[in-house]
Amino acid sequence: MPRSSIKYVSFDCYGTLTNFQVGDVTRSRLAGRVAADRMPAFLADFSAYRFDEVLGAWKPYAEVLHRSLERTCRRWDVAFDPADAQAIVNAVPSWGPHADVPAALAQLAGEVPLVILSNAADHQIQANVDKLGAPFHAVLTAQQAQAYKPRFQAFEYMFDTLGCGPEHFLHVSSSLRYDLMSAHDLRIGRRVFVDRGHGPGNPEYGYQRIDDLGGLPGVLGLGSGGR
Fold first, then answer.
1. Would residue 224 count as lying in a domain?
2. What is the pLDDT along the chain (227 residues), one digit of tens a residue?
3. Is 122 contained in some domain?
4. What pTM value is reported for the model?
5. Residues 7 and 46 occupy one common structural domain
6. What CA–CA distance (Å, rounded) separates 211 from 226?
7. Sign of CA pseudo-dihedral 140, 144, 147, 152
8. 139 shares a domain with 86
9. CA distance 173 to 149
10. Which of 132, 136, 158, 222 sits at 20 to 30 Å (Cα–Cα) from 104?
């Protein structure tokens, strides 16, 4: 698809742009209850429960974290403390970008409008966006859409808000199951997978893979960097 047909470059935020540190906070808070050698499996289950929690009707993000951590602790027969979930909620606005993000966004910002579509709460995301160092045409959240990705409703909210169809977007994410599977099914014009090790890819979903965001300008024909 030619670049001329792309009106917006849309991004997942947490994990793709912002360094998502739920695992670090969780590891610190539960170190006394989960053995170090078992912590990777605990965190994998916590990630799976977070995904499960966003598949139904919208609820506040703080509740998503609370319920998913509680369910993980129950599965592991570990004492659940609501303060642990709240500590994660409180930490989110403090997280900054991956090192490769600011320069790539700065290069893109003068060429095409940038959009964020995030599974976030309105009150928390702007602090993270401010740390990215680039202007965004729109910052759209699950709270606004009343739906979390991967539900189509979240993406449809973006299309409706910006007044154009899926064919006019290039969508960028480090997550296949939160973003790129739905982006494929909705026929978003171009899809880019930033391979940050957040889960397996599957090229059958028709994306272009890059190692980090430094490769994105090259995907759009803006100089070297494509991978």
1. no
2. 556 689 999 999 999 999 999 999 999 999 999 999 999 999 999 999 999 999 989 999 999 999 999 999 999 999 999 999 999 999 999 999 999 999 999 999 989 999 999 999 999 999 999 999 999 999 999 999 999 999 999 999 999 999 999 999 999 999 999 999 999 999 999 999 999 988 888 999 999 999 999 999 999 988 654 33
3. yes
4. 0.93
5. no
6. 9
7. negative
8. no
9. 12
10. 158
Residue carrying structure tokens 């709460």: 121
Determine phi and psi for 187, rounding to 5 degrees: 60, 40
Domain boundary among 93, 116, 146: 93
Contacts of 48 (CB under 8 A, 6+ apart): none
The position carrying tokens 């995907």 is 219
Supply 15's token pair. Answer: 């994990």
Domain that holds residue 142: 3-19+96-219
Best CA proximity match to 111, nearest among 134, 92, 144, 89? 134
Report whether 17 contacts 97 (CB < 8 A).
Answer: yes
